Amino acid sequence: MIMSRIEARPDEDSVAVGSAPERLTENRAEDLTEDRAEDLTQRLTERLLTGLPAEAVLTDPDVTGSYANDMASFCEAGTPAVVVLPRTVEQVQHVMRTATDLRIPVVPQGARTGLSGAANASEGCIVLSLTKMDRILEISPVDRIAVVEPGVINATLSRAVNEHGLYYPPDPSSWEMCTIGGNIGTASGGLCCVKYGVTAEYVLGLDVVLADGRLMTTGRRTAKGVAGYDLTRLFVGSEGSLGIVVRATLALKPQPPQQLVLAAEFASGSAACDAVCRIMEGGHVPSLLELMDRTTVKAVNDMAHMGLPESTEALLLAAFDTHDPAADLAAVGALCEAAGATQVVPAEDAAESELLLQARRLSLTGLEAVKGTTMIDDVCVPRSRLAEMLEGVDRIAEKYRLTIGVVAHAGDGNTHPTVCFDASDPDESRRARESFDEIMALGLELGGTITGEHGVGVLKKEWLAREIGPVGIEMQRAVKTAFDPLGILNPGKLF
Amino acid sequence: MIMSRIEARPDEDSVAVGSAPERLTENRAEDLTEDRAEDLTQRLTERLLTGLPAEAVLTDPDVTGSYANDMASFCEAGTPAVVVLPRTVEQVQHVMRTATDLRIPVVPQGARTGLSGAANASEGCIVLSLTKMDRILEISPVDRIAVVEPGVINATLSRAVNEHGLYYPPDPSSWEMCTIGGNIGTASGGLCCVKYGVTAEYVLGLDVVLADGRLMTTGRRTAKGVAGYDLTRLFVGSEGSLGIVVRATLALKPQPPQQLVLAAEFASGSAACDAVCRIMEGGHVPSLLELMDRTTVKAVNDMAHMGLPESTEALLLAAFDTHDPAADLAAVGALCEAAGATQVVPAEDAAESELLLQARRLSLTGLEAVKGTTMIDDVCVPRSRLAEMLEGVDRIAEKYRLTIGVVAHAGDGNTHPTVCFDASDPDESRRARESFDEIMALGLELGGTITGEHGVGVLKKEWLAREIGPVGIEMQRAVKTAFDPLGILNPGKLF
């Protein structure tokens, strides 16, 4: 393995962000020979072991190799030099001080359920896995907050706060596996967002270990607070490129009543989108408003034999967690019929509702089974443009002769057109990537964004530049440099 | 008037944030003589007039002097060299290019209703008033967004969206006067926050003119989006120190039913705070939960003859804008009684509710009438510590022999202990400032923040440092430098 050390550019070196820790004065070289790389790995390991127990430092290539990538396995990934599994803030500080001194890139990881390669290893990096820092430190029903370490699993937190009559809304599909730290890194969404918003809206304050190992506290544990720039929010969605989140204070909601779900079938995607617009324009506040197209419905049936109606072109699921959800569903059902729904079936109870949600949650797994591999787009458009988005994806699927299933958080305009392809077929793989990109171009054309909730990572770097333009990219880079002048934190991600 | 030009420090000059516009190569001096200052003002005015109509450039000292400060009139303020009132984005860009070239500080202003001196002029600055950019550009009921210029009055927007069945929640007390741009600059709160949150949660995207005149677009017009760092949120609450907001895309909610208010009287502040905790712990979601202490109640009665009950030590107002507010008020009323309320009076209709809210809204004006001048603290504590906060303020009032009325957004733990004093009495003024500071110290001790919604400005600079610590301040400065390497944007505010 050839290690690449981070080479700080002179202008980065000169940025004043405080007294840098002791810096090595060795000669730098663009490429290190294999011998020198091994030497550096050895020194890195030795340095790490001065502040970490042996079981927290993994160097066996068979083991470290398994930390190379997140769920976007088709994105480029390097081989980690070492994987560290700290259990304390001090240990994380030791890792970052070591990385700064030796100029080694650090790639923070949670459960690696991300879909954009943001947690993929850089060649010769330290993988900093936060999974062992998994304690829930506090739950306060009066203050409606939880204080957690980054490795806490989303579902674990959700269930723990439920026991106090509280609710932590963000619910990405991977909620049984993914960590709160990862959710913060990617500003994760989920099914609940149409009513409850994304992760960002639940992060009140953070403890962050900076690139040079110093600890910074941002934000607050109060309901409100405007003391200085909102650095908390800056870290949410920063994909581990600004600092290492080691503690988070999260806002909680009171637990709402159990939601009740309605399913509506439509003869076309645009009729379903019309229903979505009528529902939102009508002032309704559903707790969920999801769309599955015919391809997705069939894929779920094929995999899980759910008995979903395959004759429909688009299946819309709406839910309410209000005190009288049946009344809300009746009103929304009428709007669906006005928009041309061929059938409207409200769930009779929680069990039926759960079954419908389960079908929705199986969508991506179902689509993956179609051809073995998927590329999942994450384009969010203003919901008034949702019908155009769906029509465009149909055209693109036809143009590239591909199966593209669409599952969408329709209420948010957040679509996941999922390109199904056989990764062993180079031509199909090429067409998959081209269609994937064309879908993002369409999203931008419709006034949308290339990523509603999955992040940029490695997968959409060039698209971020297209979305935010040269001035935007320049200012994003300036912020990055302010926090990480040596560029050691998750390099090569975002831009 | 002696003008001070911004003297860029060498290390700031070297920060790479893109090609700086043409820079003057003149000699710099720490202080300019009066002659040179007049010369510079003349050149500044001439340069401004090359891109602005004459009526948009005010130089008459009698006029410009009236733009010297916001509502925190007791904070230091300089004399503006010139006041500009642009009407277009291009005009704002021209102002910033001019300011960069001549190294003149720029102080952005809205309606100057701020309470921390964040809009106070620097000596010899350009005051950039955004009040003429006051168009509502778009309201979309389907996408639930509004696109506005920064000078739109909060109440104007609120009423305009109401006509479409929509609701823009943030409602600072000054909502009939204050601008959306000012609200964004200070991340304003209001009475609605306990249910609907602060301004920050309603800003989806911004057009910002940077210090050097370039235009940057941040964020999105979609419900969700995570493309790159959240620069939108970074600008919210940045008090005009990072760039000039010239357009904002705001999220809207569907208009809720009319809220119904309940008033509960308590024999002590701590009993009222106990009621607040029971209400929030009980999972209720009031649309308003406000507290007025005896001093405040009496001040409002004295001024407006409202007939509020003066025998009470603390008056709690709770409201619900749900579909069955009477039922919610009954439940909350029972919790108030359990906490020891001496009387619980639900409003019978919207008119009675409005009267109670009016009393609350008159609180600060009422307290101002007590002694002629007030210093309004804005300490927010975890609501579990609210009772301790109130008790502490009582002790501080006694210690400094001052009248301090407390009005609080109790549901958020956001208190406004308001120090009443006679500004012509130096000893009382000194005691007022000391008590004001001691209240912030108490807030920090209780795990709170020095500012829940009013911002830092000039008034609380040293307290920001105490709250966020040296590493926090250093990183805040690094962010500032990334956006404004010459330090021309609202210098001397925040830190």
UniProtKB/TrEMBL annotation, chains A, B:
Gene Ontology MF annotations: FAD binding; oxidoreductase activity
Domain FAD-binding PCMH-type residue range list: 76-255
Alphabetic keyword roster: FAD, Flavoprotein, Oxidoreductase
Region (Disordered): 1-30
Record keyword Flavoprotein present: yes
Family recorded in the similarity comment: Belongs to the FAD-binding oxidoreductase/transferase type 4 family.
Family annotation (InterPro entries): FAD-bd_oxidored_4_C, FAD-bd_PCMH, FAD-bd_PCMH-like_sf, FAD-bd_PCMH_sub2, FAD-linked_Oxase-like_C, FAD-linked_OxidoTrans_Type4, Oxid_FAD_bind_N, Vanillyl_alc_oxidase_C-sub2
Taxonomic lineage of the native organism: Bacteria, Bacillati, Actinomycetota, Actinomycetes, Kitasatosporales
Membrane spanning stretches: none
Organism expressing this protein natively: Streptomyces dioscori
Protein name: FAD-binding oxidoreductase
